[in-house]
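Contributing new records

If you add data, match the layout below exactly. Sequence lines come first and carry their own label; structure lines follow with theirs. Keep one chain per record. Anything else will be rejected by the validation script.
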Amino acid sequence: MDASIIIINWNTRDLLIECINSVYSTTQGINFDIWVVDNGSSDGSVQALRELFPDVKVIENQSNLGFAKACNQALKLMESKFAVLLNSDTILTDGAIKTVLDTMEKDPDIGLCGAQLLNSDGTKQNSIANTPSLATELLNKSLLRRLFPQKYPGKERDFAEPIEVESIIGAFMAVGKKAIDKVGMLDESYFFFFEETDWCIRMKKKGWKVVHHPGAKVYHLQGQTVRKINIRARIEYWKSRYLFFKK
């Protein structure tokens, strides 16, 4: 396989179905398989997968193991050259995955590559992240991007070509198997939030490039899972942020 598309699901059945349909309808020219790791859903997600997508490989957990641990379950089993990690609330546009993988094939130093995330109306979401610091956590991120666009690149700028960045937003992440073998998998200490930032930092420390690709467009119906558990999500964010700075 060229790529294994890995989707983590927790009670987002309808979004998951739409996401998988978009993978099949927009991805041509590469050999791929799809893995869904279900974190103990109670909304019939697994049953729907088996009925609608019998070729999808399903890992069924009995409880919510968190994003990083669930991803690692599939990463350990896949046999592809690349992994593409997708949020279940993403919808791919034509050629998004192939566009990213072609770029990574041309530059073998790219370890991890993200896409341009879009709102449902087609406007840009911020898809680039800086390494968290006192400035990014205490000041307004949008203001920082406007005042210091070179240091804090974001959706306010139009990029014609892929650019190297400090970190990306993890709703879409293409990762090379060679990079994973050198750097290691996601840190399972993070239950939810900051795990992709941690991975990007570790990638760069080992000499791999982290890249944002503006030509790959992915709709991100942002935070659909988080909105269902808003209070718990806030708690997990603070816990992960504390862990990140401690580490």
